[in-house]
From TrEMBL:
<dbReference type="InterPro" id="IPR054221">
    <property type="entry name" value="DUF6941"/>
</dbReference>
<protein>
    <submittedName>
        <fullName>Uncharacterized protein</fullName>
    </submittedName>
</protein>
<feature type="region of interest" description="Disordered">
    <location>
        <begin position="76"/>
        <end position="96"/>
    </location>
</feature>
<dbReference type="Pfam" id="PF22091">
    <property type="entry name" value="DUF6941"/>
</dbReference>
Length: 142
């Protein structure tokens, strides 16, 4: 059995991943409540075990409602799910001691979404594992 990845999901206002270093530059990180519509970002931070370095890990992020169903947004072409596919790869650098985990990251910047007040989860699937991070959309101030 392969050593599992250590994964964190972080919500923030905006983010940019640096694949070469595994770092992510984030603005407004760590929130769990927003008003709609609002742009935001979902960051995947991974520690890739030494024995799994130099592998490509496909990932899927899907926005789900409080019932666990994929969120669908009305578009000109009809309702569409809110999801993204991507990948991370942690190349084994020469100066990292044998056995040390290697940093890898992915950032998804999300355009404004017209979400109704309620609870939502970003659901991540990667390397046979799943993670979620929950947030709440608050009713507009009146």
């Amino acid at each position: 059995m392969a050593t599992p990845l250590e994964i964190q999901l972080i919500l923030c206002d905006a983010a940019q991943a640096d694949p070469a270093s595994g770092k992510v530059h984030m603005l407004g990180a760590g929130w769990s409540r927003i008003f709609s519509p609002m742009t935001h970002a979902v960051v995947v931070l991974a520690k890739v075990p030494w024995d799994r370095a130099d592998q490509r890990f496909s990932l899927t992020l899907t926005l789900r409602d409080q019932d666990g169903e994929p969120v669908r947004i009305a578009t000109h072409d009809g309702p569409r799910g809110v999801h993204s596919k991507g990948a991370i790869r942690a190349n084994r650098p020469g100066k990292v001691p044998s056995g040390d985990p290697i940093d890898a990251s992915f950032a998804l910047n999300v355009s404004p979404l017209p979400l109704a007040p309620g609870h939502y989860d970003w659901h991540l699937e990667i390397a046979g594992e799943t993670r979620t991070t929950r947030f709440t959309v608050l009713a507009p101030l009146q």
